[in-house]
Every structure is written in structure tokens, then in C-alpha cells.
């Protein structure tokens, strides 16, 4: 049985299983097995075909990196071109962007790298198309912009999130508040500092047993799920802020636009008409958590003024300017 068949079999069993306290233990075990298989799928054994592929080895430059992700022909390339003046082959049909195209913008003194990643299709995390390489680059980003066509169902949003989740990318989430430490002996020492609605000692031990972990200290400091525990054990998850960019608002009504503005983490725009770019750039700045720091004039720097970090050693009579967010 192939890896994909094993994954499909487990996902099918999970879909058939009712979620309740009686099945929590079994579902936790299935989730752990599924996570292990997906890890193996993402990082296959052996060296064949393991390279990043042409156009995907992009050097990280500047103060931050943003990845533009979305289904084909939703306007990613147009948005990037109008933001940074970078040409990426644009057409009114699907699958025109074949490689990662880097661009750079400067905003509030920060140099921000923009990557227009090829269109992601459902099943990319299963090795279809070039999705695996695309999301490998997405994992290195400081911020992800999921570009959506406002005229198409927000089901696209769910599909892309599912693809990213499959690669261990967690959007707009904090790492689980779980203490986990392996040890050589003593069994599983399980402690919860608050009430747990899903995990109990039996479920925890079964999940850890799937990873052949029989000695460890585990502390749950919040109401955790089996997925939270698996994420901590896997140890390869990345937690990235995300903005949902709803493009083509020139084709909807004002009333529909008012509804869109209430969706969390969303910014409506028209890439073609360059509408609402100011709001998008300001939201990007907020989500990157960038802080403009010191400019120094004086003998301690080569250029006047020069941007320096917090470890810079000042000289007598140097002048420093502090710039906050």
C-alpha cells in the first residue's frame, strides 16, 4: 500500500468515526499516525527528486519576507506587479506563474521581500504539481498573504488552509502552551494545570506510544487538543501570521464590501485598480511586528546617519534618533 493510500485510509476512517468522549482515544491515535505519514510524505526518504526545483531557491533578503499564496488567476501577480513593479507573467487563464518571483518594497524604512508563489491546487501537499516546493518556501515567510477572488466561494480559503496545515504551517495561531520533555526512565508524567475537554491520561499515553515515547514529562497549561499535542511532539510546525486579501472588489456592491470588512484578518482590495493598497500595507506592517530603530550620527558609524541595532556601541557626542512604530 502506498503512502497516499495509507493516508487516505486513515482520513476515511476518521471521517466515519463520530466525535465524542468514547472515541477521543481512538481518534487521537489515528491523528498521530496520520501526522507521521504526512511528515514522511513531506520529507521523503532518499535523495531522488528532493531538490527544491528551478525557481524555488530564493535567497531571503531585507527585513522581512512575505509569501503570496492562492489559487491560479486570483490576481497575485497583478498585486505584486502593482506593489513592487515586478513583472510576473500574467494572463487571464490558470497556471501562468511557474516559478517563485521575488520582488521588494520599501515601507516605513523597512525592506520587505515579496514572493509570488505559483498557484496552489487542492492536493499540493500530496505531491501534486509543484505544491510541495511552493509550500516549502512558504514555511520560510514572516507573513503569508492568501489572495482570494471575492467572487468565488470562500471554500477556496478552507482548501488553501488545509494544504498549508498539511505542511505544518499554522496560521494566526500561537504555539500550544504545552511543556514536553523526553527522559530516559520514569514513565509518562502527565500533569494538567487546568480542566481538559479532550485529552486525558489514556489518550496522551496512546499518542506518545505511537511515537515510541514511553518516558516523558508532559504539562498541559491550557485546554489542549490531540492536534496540539501532536504538533508539540512533531516539533516541526511553523506559526505564521496571515492576511486574507480579497481581490476584485470592483465587481461587488458596497453592501457586500461592508460584510467583507467584518471578516477577521481580511483586507479587501482591487489589484487592477490599486484600490485600498494603503490599508493593505498598513495591515502588513502591523502583522510583521516590525519596529523602526535607531539612526546614529557621529564617530561610531561609517555613514551619517546610519541605522544600527540595540547592540551598537555609541561614542562620546554621538547623536541618536529613536523611531517607534
Automatic annotation (TrEMBL):
Entry's Gene Ontology molecular function annotations: GTP binding; GTPase activity
Pfam families: MMR_HSR1 (PF01926), MMR_HSR1_Xtn (PF16897), TGS (PF02824)
Keyword Amino-acid biosynthesis: no
Domain of life: Eukaryota
Domain OBG-type G: 64-289
Protein keywords: GTP-binding, Nucleotide-binding
PROSITE patterns: G_OBG (PS51710), GTP1_OBG (PS00905)
Name of the protein in its database record: Developmentally-regulated GTP-binding protein 1
Source species: Triplophysa tibetana
Upper taxonomic lineage: Eukaryota, Metazoa, Chordata, Craniata, Vertebrata
Amino acid at each position: 500500500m502506498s503512502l497516499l493510500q495509507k493516508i487516505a485510509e486513515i482520513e476515511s476512517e476518521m471521517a466515519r468515526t463520530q466525535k465524542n468522549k468514547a472515541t477521543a482515544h481512538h481518534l487521537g491515535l489515528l491523528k498521530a499516525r496520520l501526522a507521521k505519514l504526512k511528515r514522511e510524505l513531506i520529507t521523503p526518504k532518499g535523495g531522488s527528486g528532493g531538490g527544491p526545483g528551478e525557481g524555488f531557491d530564493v535567497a531571503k533578503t531585507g527585513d522581512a519576507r512575505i509569501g503570496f499564496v492562492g489559487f491560479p488567476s486570483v490576481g497575485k501577480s497583478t498585486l505584486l506587479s502593482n506593489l513592487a513593479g515586478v513583472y510576473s507573467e500574467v494572463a487571464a487563464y490558470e497556471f501562468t506563474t511557474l516559478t517563485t518571483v521575488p520582488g521588494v518594497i520599501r515601507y516605513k524604512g523597512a525592506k520587505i521581500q515579496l514572493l509570488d508563489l505559483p498557484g496552489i491546487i487542492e492536493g499540493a501537499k500530496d505531491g501534486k504539481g509543484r505544491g510541495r516546493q511552493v509550500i516549502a518556501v512558504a514555511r520560510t515567510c514572516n507573513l503569508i498573504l492568501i489572495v482570494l477572488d471575492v467572487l468565488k466561494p470562500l471554500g477556496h480559503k478552507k482548501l488553501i488552509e488545509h494544504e498549508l496545515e498539511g505542511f505544518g504551517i499554522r496560521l494566526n495561531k500561537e504555539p500550544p502552551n504545552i511543556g514536553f520533555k523526553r527522559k530516559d526512565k520514569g514513565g509518562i508524567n502527565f500533569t494538567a494545570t487546568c480542566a481538559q475537554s479532550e485529552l486525558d491520561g489514556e489518550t496522551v499515553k496512546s499518542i506518545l506510544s505511537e511515537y515510541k515515547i514511553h518516558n516523558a514529562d508532559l504539562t498541559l497549561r491550557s485546554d489542549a487538543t490531540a492536534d496540539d499535542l501532536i504538533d508539540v511532539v512533531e516539533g516541526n510546525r511553523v506559526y505564521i501570521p496571515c492576511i486574507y486579501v480579497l481581490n476584485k472588489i470592483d465587481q461587488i456592491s458596497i453592501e457586500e464590501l461592508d460584510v467583507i470588512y467584518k471578516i477577521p484578518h481580511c483586507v479587501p482590495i482591487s489589484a487592477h485598480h490599486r484600490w485600498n493598497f494603503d490599508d493593505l500595507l498598513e495591515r502588513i506592517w502591523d502583522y510583521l511586528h516590525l519596529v523602526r530603530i535607531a539612526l546614529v550620527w557621529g564617530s561610531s558609524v561609517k555613514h551619517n546617519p546610519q541605522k544600527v541595532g540595540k547592540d551598537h556601541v555609541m561614542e562620546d557626542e554621538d547623536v541618536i534618533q529613536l523611531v517607534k512604530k
